User: Fold these one by one.
Assistant:
Number 1:
Amino acid sequence: MLAGVLAASMIGSGCAGVVQGSTPAGTGTPPPAPPQTQLSATPMSASFPAVAAGSSSSQAITLQNGGTGSVTISGVNVTGAGFSTSGLTLPMSIAAGQKATFNVVFAPSSAGNASGSIALANNASSSPLAISVSGSAIASTTVLSSSTTSLDFRSVLVGSNTSLGVTLTNTGTTNVTISNVLVTGAGFSATGAGANTTLARGQTAALNVTFAPSALGSAVGSITIGSNAPGVSITLAGSGGQLSSHTVALSWDPSTSDVVGYNVYRLLADGTYGKINPAPTAVTDYTDTNLQSGSSYTYVVTAITADNTESAYSDLVIATIP
């Protein structure tokens, strides 16, 4: 019995040796897979609407390596009139999982539509990576616009001053550079936008015009704005007035709501209302003394609550000073 058992073990051992000796090649640990390269772009297309001929516009493109091996961009082929790239230094390598950015530029030389592509040669399976581009070019124009063509300061007390604002806007397609702002007329002046002010397309600049009469009577003038665009002119008018001995006594019905006081407003030359009492008055009357002879004044009143909420304007009242 013991010999038989031993024989069986030997036979088993012999068989194991035979099997081990005949193991097929390749049944052990497989070799690592070769690195995979994968390149993508975001976005895959670039559009440039309404670019002025002679100017340029750019758009950023992000490249991403979504593979396990490094991607090398070896070349770029650009088609389409006016298109180019910036920020690509070739050869460019992007490590696995990393990103890189470059710009597509559209700089049309004349009005019209254009289309093309940016093809990036690389060592990924998707080579070349193609990004479609399109653009429309509009004719180049240089235009400076003003928010108004005239300013009327009405009557201003001699020795005091009033200011009105003007907004200048580049409504063309190319930069506008102001070379000078010429003001004529006694008592008129301007500050703000001046020589060497440059406005890009759609950009604005403020011009503050002041009338400070030194004598009684009417005054007229003008503002001429010189630039590389067609000229802009604004006519000016006003009159110097004197303080009147007359006053305007205002009174109103009390508010039916719970209020702590009232504000009194007077119409200004620019069409807005300016508050003439320094703090809300608790009573329902007010006397205005800062008046000019030969002028008319328009007033409104508002009510103020304890939490400083202000009501809408009351009905207006007009007073004419002899």
Number 2:
Amino acid sequence: MKTREWPLVVFTVLVELGVGVLAFCLVYGLVTNGADIESYRILVLMGSGLTIVGLVTSMAHLGRPWGVYKAVYGLRNGAPLSIEMVATVLFLALTIICAVGLFGRDEGVLLTLALITIGVGLAAVLASARVNMLETRPGWFSLLTPASFLLTAVVAGPLMVGAYLTMAGKDLGGTASSRFFTIASIVLTCGVVLEGLVAFAQLRSLESGGAAARLVAGRIKGSGLFWGRVIGIAVSVVLGIVLLTLAASHVSNLGVVVWLALIVVLVGEFLSRTIFFSLYTQIDIGQVDVSGYAITPRNLSIGQ
């Protein structure tokens, strides 16, 4: 993978993690009935921090980072990249406002603000996926791309929140704690299964596409990154089931399982995004690939 593509891996994954943390901080708040204000504030700041690191890292992908403010101009024409950058910055601003608002603890206002913030964050993730839905990249031009981006937030978000809670001693087997970890483990397990199905669907669509698409599928299946991802999905499902069993049984001290699951999931998400940016090769429409097949807009449309 080219050096300039690494910032995209970090940027997309970290922003999705930030959105996931905010979403499941809200879930934790609803489960605990607003009784753990200190944890909410720390989790919101965690989401802000992940987003900041992602945005700063993304600057390394730009030829002229100091001109990033010009992204605003593209909003007039609905440019996907402009929408992505503005939505991400707006999400960051709203998370900071949420963190400040937690000092006042006006629960009605905070709940509304939290929902708006999460909505903007999801819009930023979808905009990021839209930027990468290019016809010249077999496997990208599909609704499976936004699905895979959103699933990163779904599977990693509850584990990021859960990891903090175990570190802060909140996994003590109480009713609220048990309820949250039960929800988190169900979301994790279902989300990872869906990720596996999405990955399988992407490969199947590539294999049933044109010559260029089939070449991309071969590159992916022959990669160690892909098989590492497959193993990670299987391990994550097992850990999700183990966590669900322990949480449903009100077992305390879930830290080892939660942190192990978090590490496996994070490695898997970075592997998945690395595969996305490094193995889904660029194809120029109108050229001829190494198999001698003409590459046209039709056979670049995956699944045709």
